[in-house]
Amino acid sequence: MTILAAFSASSHGSAPLNLAAQLARTTGDKVVAAAVVERPWPPRGDPVEDEYLRYITTQATQSLDRAVAGLPKDVDIPTTVHQSSSVPTGLIELAVANQVNLVVVGSSSTGLLGRVALGSVTERLVHTAEVPVAIAPRGYPQNAGRIRRLTASYGGEADINGLIPAAAELAEKWSAKLRIVSFTVRNTKAFRGIIESSAEDLVVEQWTRRTVADITKQLNDIREHMTVPDVDVVVGAGHDWNAAVESVSWEAGDMLVLGSGAAAQSAQVFLGSAAAKILRHAPVPVMIVPRR
Question: Residue ranges of the UspA domain (predicted)?
Answer without folding.
Answer: 2-136, 167-290
